[in-house]
Amino acid sequence: MRVGVLTGGGDCPGLNAVIRAVVRKGVSVHGFEFVGYRDGWKGPLEGLTMELGIEQCRGILPRGGTILGSSRTNPFTVDGGVEQIKDNLARDGVDALVAIGGEDTLGVATKLADLGVNVVGVPKTIDNDLSGTDYTFGFDTAVNIATEAIDRLHTTAESHHRVLVVEVMGRHAGWIALHSGLAGGANIVLIPEQPFDIDEVCALVEARFESQYSPIIVVSEGAVPKSGTEELTSGELDAFGHVRLGGIGDRLARQIEERTGKEARSVVLGHIQRGGTPTAFDRWLATRLGLQAADAVAEGDFGTMMALHGTTVTRIPLLEGTGELKLVSPEEYAEAQVFFG
Amino acid sequence: MRVGVLTGGGDCPGLNAVIRAVVRKGVSVHGFEFVGYRDGWKGPLEGLTMELGIEQCRGILPRGGTILGSSRTNPFTVDGGVEQIKDNLARDGVDALVAIGGEDTLGVATKLADLGVNVVGVPKTIDNDLSGTDYTFGFDTAVNIATEAIDRLHTTAESHHRVLVVEVMGRHAGWIALHSGLAGGANIVLIPEQPFDIDEVCALVEARFESQYSPIIVVSEGAVPKSGTEELTSGELDAFGHVRLGGIGDRLARQIEERTGKEARSVVLGHIQRGGTPTAFDRWLATRLGLQAADAVAEGDFGTMMALHGTTVTRIPLLEGTGELKLVSPEEYAEAQVFFG
Amino acid sequence: MRVGVLTGGGDCPGLNAVIRAVVRKGVSVHGFEFVGYRDGWKGPLEGLTMELGIEQCRGILPRGGTILGSSRTNPFTVDGGVEQIKDNLARDGVDALVAIGGEDTLGVATKLADLGVNVVGVPKTIDNDLSGTDYTFGFDTAVNIATEAIDRLHTTAESHHRVLVVEVMGRHAGWIALHSGLAGGANIVLIPEQPFDIDEVCALVEARFESQYSPIIVVSEGAVPKSGTEELTSGELDAFGHVRLGGIGDRLARQIEERTGKEARSVVLGHIQRGGTPTAFDRWLATRLGLQAADAVAEGDFGTMMALHGTTVTRIPLLEGTGELKLVSPEEYAEAQVFFG
Amino acid sequence: MRVGVLTGGGDCPGLNAVIRAVVRKGVSVHGFEFVGYRDGWKGPLEGLTMELGIEQCRGILPRGGTILGSSRTNPFTVDGGVEQIKDNLARDGVDALVAIGGEDTLGVATKLADLGVNVVGVPKTIDNDLSGTDYTFGFDTAVNIATEAIDRLHTTAESHHRVLVVEVMGRHAGWIALHSGLAGGANIVLIPEQPFDIDEVCALVEARFESQYSPIIVVSEGAVPKSGTEELTSGELDAFGHVRLGGIGDRLARQIEERTGKEARSVVLGHIQRGGTPTAFDRWLATRLGLQAADAVAEGDFGTMMALHGTTVTRIPLLEGTGELKLVSPEEYAEAQVFFG
User: Fold this and answer.
1) Among A90, B50, B266, C207, whose Cα sits 20 to 30 Å from the Cα of B79?
2) Do B280 and A310 touch (CB under 8 A)?
C-alpha cells in the first residue's frame, strides 16, 4: 500500500513528530510505502512529491517546522483542482492520504473524503481551537513560551511602575492568552470571545497601581474592544488586502498611557510562539496521533480525524473536528477571573 | 469558616500554585480564613501553624517547593496521633482541611475522613502513578526536564560511539521514562512494570551500533532486571535501612560495557526532576485543582479528591485515588515499542 | 563602618547578585554594617532606607529585578539635592556608598565623588555600552533571550516565505543586535551606529528569497534609516514628551512588505530582555563586581568603578566608565558582514 | 588554495559554529576550497574525507556535536603516521589544515607544525583548561547547564532536610564547578586543584543544617580526597583499562550519609554538559575564532592558535596554548570561599 503525507497551514511545533510516527509505524508494522507531498494541498494538486521513509525522518522529532513544507493552497478554489488531485494520486500509485493541518487543511480533507478520496486527518493548530479533541499539538509549546515571557516581565513590573502588555497568538480563540495568563500570573487577560471595555481595563490598571503593584496584561492578537474605541481597531489591510491582525498590544499600551498617564510598554511574541522545538507534551501528542493515523489507514477507516480524549488517542469523523471552532466558554473565562483584575 | 492547608511527601513543582489558588478562591469568593500547617501531617499533629493569606501567596506561582514545608510524618504510626490532630484542629478553630500530597499523604486523609475529619485531597506526584486522575502536576515538568537532557545527549551519541544511559525518576511506575523516552527519541526504555533481560538489552545495543548509531537508554530508577543478574540489583540499604533506589543507571552502564565492550556512560537526573519552576501545564493544572478544592470545601463535599478528566477538573472519592497505583499497561508500553530497539 | 547600597536606572538581570556579593563580603570579611537605599538616588535624597544584611540577601542570586527598587531620580536636578544627600548620609551614619547603575546613575556618582562623597560604582546596562569594562552584566542574558527567539523563527522562515523582523534593545549601541544576530544566524543586522538604507535592505531581502531562503532581520530599537524615509522614523512622543523609541521593527516590516510584496512579520522582545533570571555568566560577573566593590570600600579607594578586563575584575576611575559610550566600531560591524546579506 | 578542516577529542557545543565560520570566510572572502576530514586526526591519517562547503554548513550554527565527526586518534602513536598524513594531504591537494580540538588534538598540531605541516589551531574544551585564551567555547554552555540544575535543587534542599551533591565535568581543572557553584549559590565546591578533607566537608554540612538550611555541594568529576579515605577513591578501571573517572558524586553522598546520618542524594550531569545547542556566548566565540582561523591561513600565519583576550580574538603560538593546563589558582578559589561553607 502506498500512502501520501502532507502538512498544510501555518507551521506548528510537532508537525515533524507526526510525520515521523506515521512513517515509522506505517513502514515497520503495516509495510506501507510512503510519498511525501510538498507544500500542503499544493503537492497533490501540482504533483510535487519527495522521497519519504524512515531515513528522511531521522532526527526530525525535536525540530520545529515541517520537512514537507506547507502552503495555504485550496484545491477547491482551482478549476478542476479535485480532478488534478485524483489524477496525481493515481499517477503516484497512492492509495491513501494522511493530511496534517488545521481548519482549512482538514476542511479540504473532509470534502475530498466525501468525493471518495481515502484520507485521514491529523489536527494541528497552536490556537487549540479545533473541536473534537482535548488539545492540539503546538498549543502547549506556545503557552510555555508565552508563560516564560510573562515570568520575565514580573521583575520589571515590580522594579518599575509600568504597565506591561503581552500580545499572544489567537485570532478567534483566547486559549493561549487564557492558559499563559493563568500560568504566568497575569492581572488582566483579554480574549476574542469577550470584547473588552477600555475604560474597565484602565480602571483595573489604576486599582492595581493603588495596591502598589504594576499590572501585566495578556491580550490575544484577535481581541477586540467594545464598539466606540476606533483607536483600538486596526482596520488596516496587509499587502494582500486582508485585515491585518496583531498590533492590538501596541495600540492597547498607547491607549492605557494616554488615558491613565502611566507608562505602558508592549511585547509582541508573534512567530516565536509557533517555531522551534516542541515541548515534551507536544512531541508525545503528535507522535501518538501519528501512530493512530497509520493504524486508521491500515484499517481503511477513512474520513476520520485523530483526536485526544483524556489520555486516549481515538478517531472521530472529520466533520466533527472541522465543523465549528472550539472557543473559550464564558464559564472557562469566569473560572480564571478570581486571579484577574 | 477556617480552613487548614498542608502539603506532604516529596516536593513537586506546582505545590505553591495549588496553595495560592485555594487561598485566592477561598478568601475572595468564599470568605474563608486560612491556617497554614507546616511540614505535612506533622503540622496538625504537633500544632505547627503559620499565617496563610493572599499576602503570603504573592509571587509563589512560579516557585518550586512548598512555602508550607513538607514531611513524611504519618499520624497513624503515632500513639494518639488522630486525637492530637482532632484536638489541634479544634484548638485552631479549623473546620476543614485541604491536604495536598501523594499516595501516603492522601492515604492518611482517606482514613481521617472516615474518622469524621472534614478533609479534601489534592493529588500530587511527579511519578504520575495516582489513580482516578489523567495527570498529576509535577509530572509534565519532570518529563520536560528529562526530555531536554535526552535531546542534549543525542549529539554526543552521534559524535562518539558511546552508549548513554539516563536514569529518571519512577519507583513503581515508568511514566516519566516512557514519556521522556518517547519525546526524546530514546532507543530503549526500561520501566518497573516490565522487568528487563540484560542480554536482550545488550543485543539491542549491538544492533543499534551495527546501524551506525549509538543507543540512548532511558531507565526508571525502579526498573528491575529479570532474576539472575545480581550485578544489576542494588540490595544496598541507605542510612535508614531502606533499600536504596537509584544506581540502576550506573550499574546498567557498567554491565553493558563489560558485556559488549562498548563505552557506556550514565546520567542520573535525580532531584533535578522534582525541583524548580513548574511548566505552564503544571501551573495550570495545579491552579485549577486548587480552585476546585476551595469549592469542594465551600460545598461541604468532604472525603473527595480533585481530579483531571480530559479538560475538566472534577471530584472523586479519596479512596478511588489512593486505592491502587496507576501503572503503565502492557498495551501502553507496546504502543511505544515501534520506536525502541 | 556603615555602607549604603543603591541601584538606579532600568532593571537588569544581576542587580541582586551584586547586592548579595557586596553584603556577603562586606559583612563576613570587612565587618561592615549596611543600609539599603530605596529607588536609586531617590533613596539617599529623600532618606528612604531599608534593612540590608545577609538575611535580606538570601535566595536573591537567581532573581531578576532589584530588592532595593530603582528610579531615574537625579539629585542634581533638585534644588539642594546634593546637600540633602550629604545630610541623609550623615544622619544614617553612612561612611560610604556603593552605587550600582548605568550612565546616569554613575554620572551622578562621579559628580558626588568630586564633591567629597565616598562612593564606588558598579556598572550596569544590558546595552553593554559603558566604556572601561569588557562587558556589563545583564548583556549576556539579553543576548541569550534574543538568540533563542531567533532560533525559533528559523523554522518558520524556512516553512513559509516570510520576512521576519526581530526588534531588540539598544538605544544608542547595537551590541545586543550584533551578538544575537551573529549567534542566531540572522541575515541582516541593523544597528544605531550604522544608519541603514531601506532600498539596500529590500534588495538583500529579495536576493535572499532568490536563493530559496527567507530572511531574518535583527534591528536595534535605536536603529535609524538614512534621511528621506519618513515612514520609518517614529518622531512620535510618549506620554512624557520624549521621542518614543521602539516601533522600528513594526515599521520596517511594513515598509518591506510594501516595497517587496513579500509578507513580513515583526517580533518585539521589549522588556523580556531585561527581566527574569540572569545567565550563569551574568551572575558570575555581577558577583565578582560586588566582591570587588566591597574591597574598594574597605581600602577607601573611592571614586572608582569596578570593571572586567579579560578574566580579571579591576577598578578604574569613575569618569573613564561614564565619559563616553562604548559603541560598535565599523570594524566590529564589518567583521560580521560575511554572514549577513 | 585548498584547506582541510578537522575536529578532534570529546564533543563540545560550538564545534559546528567554528566550521561554519572558517568555511564562510574562507570561501566568500579568501576564495578557498575546503576538504572535510572525518573523525579528527584519523581523517588525514586514513584519508577519510567529506565534501565541505557553504551548503554543508547551512543550519549547523545552533547544533551540538560536529558534522565532521571526531576521534582520539593520535598519528604519532602510529608507525609512519606522520608520513601517511603528509601523503594524504598531498594527494588531496591540501595546502593547509585547520585543526579544532583540545590539549591532545592541538598537541598533535603543534608537533606537525614543527614538521612542516601548514596548520592553525582552534582551541576547544568544555573544561576551559587551555592556556593562552581567556575562555574556550563550550565552557559557557556547560556552566549554564550545571547552574540551571543547581537552581532546581535549591527548592528541594529547602523543602526537605537533604544534602544534595552535584557532580560536574572537570578532570584536571575545577572551572565548571567553580563557576556553576558561584552562579548557582552552592554551599561547598570541591575541585581537583584542592584535595578535600571529608571531615571538613561533613563539618560544613552539619553547620549548614544547624543554620536551618540544607547544603548543596558541587564536585568536579576529578576532585580527589586527601589521602586516607579509600572509600572515596575510585581506583576502578573502565573497559579500556583506564581509571574510571566520575562516581565521586555518588561516593561522596554515601560517605556524608554514613558520617553525618543526614540523607544525601547525588545528581550526575555527565554528558548533558557537553551536548546540545551552544549558548549565545559560545556561538559568538566559536564563530569569531573560526573567522580568525580563516584569516590566519590566508596570511600563511601557521603554527598559531586562535585565542580570546578580553573582547579581542588574536593568535598565539600553538605551544603557548598546549604547553601547560590552565588550572584554578588558589587565589581564584579563595575569592569564592566567602559564599561557601
Assistant:
1) B50
2) no
